[in-house]
Specification:
The structure is a single chain. With about 100 residues, the protein is mainly beta. It has a domain of about 70 residues: Roll (SH3 type barrels). The chain contains no helices and ten strands. The chain has a six-stranded antiparallel β-sheet with strand order 6-3-2-1-7-8, with no helix packed on it. Strand 1 and strand 2 form a beta hairpin.
């Protein structure tokens, strides 16, 4: 079970973007996450008239390592570690390590 999923509110804990917060736009198979508005890079885009793509320099989010982001605990508004616990009905659920609250209840 992934500790970080699409739609989670995260804070960057390491690197040049440390302290920035955003929502996870996507999680890649290689263990990297794309966070909305964080780690922006400029890409030189070649025009493609068949696809309707205009050329020029576009800004887009580059992926970050999942180890460099942490979920934001809504109770404390701080970064928090995540654990996985098996519920009584057999489902697995993520929980915050600091206070034990379930992430997706």
């Amino acid at each position: 079970m992934n500790r970080i999923r699409k739609g989670d509110a995260v804070i960057v804990t390491a690197g040049s973007e440390k302290g920035r917060t955003g929502t996870v736009v996507g999680v890649r198979a290689d263990g990297r996450v794309v966070v909305e508005g964080v780690n922006m890079v400029k890409k030189h885009q070649r025009p493609n008239p068949q696809r309707g793509v205009q050329g020029g320099i576009v800004q887009k989010e580059a992926p970050l390592a999942a180890s460099n982001v942490a979920l934001v605990n809504p109770a404390t508004q701080k970064a928090d570690r995540i654990g996985v616990r098996t519920l009584k009905d057999g489902r697995k659920a993520r929980f915050f390590k600091s206070n034990g609250e379930l992430v997706d209840a």
